[in-house]
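User: I'll paste a sequence; please echo it back and then give the predicted structure.

Assistant: Echoing your sequence first, then the prediction.
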Amino acid sequence: MQDTIRRILSSSVYDVAVETPLERMGPLSDRLGRAVLLKREDLQPVFSFKLRGAYNKLATLNADEKARGVICASAGNHAQGLAYSATRMGVRAVIVMPRTTPSIKVEAVRRLGGEVVIFGDAFDDAREHALALCEKENLVFVHPYDDPEVIAGQGTIGVEILRQHSGPLAAIYVPVGGGGLAAGIATFVKFLRPDVRVFGVEPEDAASMKAALDAGKPVPLREVGIFADGVAVRQAGEETFRLCSQYLDGIVTVSTDEICAAIKDIFDHTRAIAEPAGAVALAGLRKHAPSLDLPGAVAAILSGANINFDRLRHVAERAEIGERAEALLAVTIPEKPGAYRAFIRLLGDRAITEFNYRFAPGASAQIFVGVQLKGGQAEKLSIIETLRDAGHRVLDMTDNEVAKLHIRYMVGGRVEGLRDELLYRFEFPERPGALLKFLEGLRADWNISLFHYRNHGSDYGRVLAGIQVPPGEREMFEAYLDKLGYAHWDETENPAYGMFLAPPA
């Protein structure tokens, strides 16, 4: 601890970084019944806290190391922080970025003075190439999180929080990717204010530090969700794990919808748009702080605001669900005149956020409806009870990923006489040839009967595909998918598929 504290207190980050404000979030504070404080790291020159660690590492290099130049592999905020810091110091900086990196981030690194090398289809490819270039050109590798000087630079945020808020402080919520930010903040806070709780927050589908703490050592995740790409790390660092295992009070995991709701809260308060990773900590605070039995304020780190504009649609769609301000329901109503009007009457004066319906022969029709909620979970359950009492079959789709991503846009897709259809959800790499690779590997008699694609401005495209595969060939089909290597899930038994897309029995 003492070594890390010494590094934090002797850090040189303020040569380039600014001391960011700690702001009280009024409406959220009122909702939670205690002061909620937001640490505005989105106001750094590169719109992210990563500048602190990158600059502190460079500031500790000797003259010979600076003359050699530095290198890193990154598709995001670390790349911009290192490029900015190196330019300020007159140091050469090589940034290796995968081909899937959004052009806005590539151009940002170039504008900041970094030498961009595009290599590989994924981050791991870029990292291996960066290490090879590091050895070939005798450069200094700057790790994004697992380095004592990087950790110390990030830890200066903890110093600022405790200086800016001297009153009662119950907890600080910190986003966790590789763990550098959490390790630095937790170490300093526990040194000076051991009464303050420090919680790491991770997405449910990228909880590498939680996996490490559960296993007693860093372990690789089999799959990593990439919605909050800034914290989408497959394995926690060795040094960050060592510190987090000693000084963190726990890990909170949050869903995509909860992150989107936190982005909305931040926008409502600041008119700034946080990137998903930047809002992770506030999502954890919103989820966990109501059950915290300690008096005092709670604080969250807004860690960054480098979001691609084309992701905003997805965020807006999911924020209401994350706030429990919208219910998505699949309802069976009679296929007869007046049934729609009678159904709407049952919902009273509530706002309808979505209504999908298509005529189908038969005695009943399936509709997909979104309803705005003011009373959260209790109101949703009341609506479902009212509809069921009126004789309608109701399925709650609010937390059904396939329904939210795909089927809400595809209602009415049944086909008479379609046989042997399987429904699979995929994450396709967003790179040229990904779809062709998928199609070329399919046998000619495995017919694609449905294909729905949505891109959310991330490294992966979401795909829903129906494929006709005879029962005797399904093991062969699964073997093909395993060999293909794309993340995939069998959704054939998903009730949303059964109601809206599956061939009639």
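The chain has a mean pLDDT of 89. DSSP finds 20 helices and 18 strands in the chain.
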